[in-house]
């Protein structure tokens, strides 16, 4: 039995929960972070000195950082499915996983905090609009990459789809005024038809 520490509306927790669900793994998820608190206790910091969610436990192993957790689950339990065996394929999956963290997360966090966590009267609409434009330009890159492919690596879902795919739900829901991106929209449609995505990513955005 795996344990994942983190509230379900955290995108980084969703990355791990969606990965585990795609692999058919049973998870005991514990509510911590946000309104639940609990990230600054000595017990939590002993597991995760970064004081953030998610934290994943699998037997004696404790790890944190959502992409590291997702990679671990895919490598251990998803050979031949989520985990690309070929080093070149794995590098391409890593590329899009790291891109979500290093390029996409910043502007999408501005959009999310601005539109979801900030009262309307206090919103900096210029900053939110600029971040939405940047997010859109970034997803346009993925749209181009997905031409002729069902998923990031081709025919089937892999770890390379997971972080950008989890963020795609927020992008589609929060950035409504965007140009047509047919490959991205078709890929997003494939994600939304998956029960694991519906159960762990398509939750109220709060
Ligand atoms: N790079 C980390 C980021 C972790 C992170 O910042 N998590 C946020 C939630 S998405 C958090 O812990 N926020 C504090 C809280 O929920 O109380 C990862 O990908 O796991």
Overview of this structure, please?
The chain is α+β, with helices and mostly antiparallel strands and 206 residues long. Helices cover 54% and strands 8% of the residues. The protein has helices at 11-22, 42-47, 66-77, 87-116, 125-145, 162-174, 182-192, 195-200, and strands at 2-5, 27-30, 55-58, 61-64. The chain has a four-stranded mixed β-sheet with strand order 2-1-3-4, covered by helices on one side. The longest helix is centred in the middle third of the chain and has 30 residues, at 87-116. The protein binds glutathione. It comes from Hwanghaeella grinnelliae. GO terms for molecular function: transferase activity. Belongs to the GST superfamily.
Structural class of the helices, strands and pairings? alpha+beta
Tally of DSSP helical segments: 8
**Cofactors, ions and other ligands in the entry:** glutathione
Into which percent range does the helicity of residues fall?
Answer: 40-55%
Compute the number of structural domains: 2
In order across it, which strands form the biggest sheet? Answer: 2-1-3-4
The fold-level CATH name of the largest domain is: Glutathione S-transferase Yfyf (Class Pi), Chain A, domain 2
Distance between the termini: 28 Å
Low-pLDDT regions: none
Average pLDDT figure: 98
Beta-strand content: 5-15%
- DSSP strand count: 4
Q: Give the topology string: H per helix, E per strand.
A: EHEHEEHHHHHH
Shape: globular
Q: Which architecture name of the largest domain does CATH use?
A: Up-down Bundle
The CATH class name of the largest domain reads Mainly Alpha
Q: Strand count, sense and closure of the main sheet? A: 4 strands, mixed
Rounded to an integer, what's the Rg over CA atoms? 17 Å
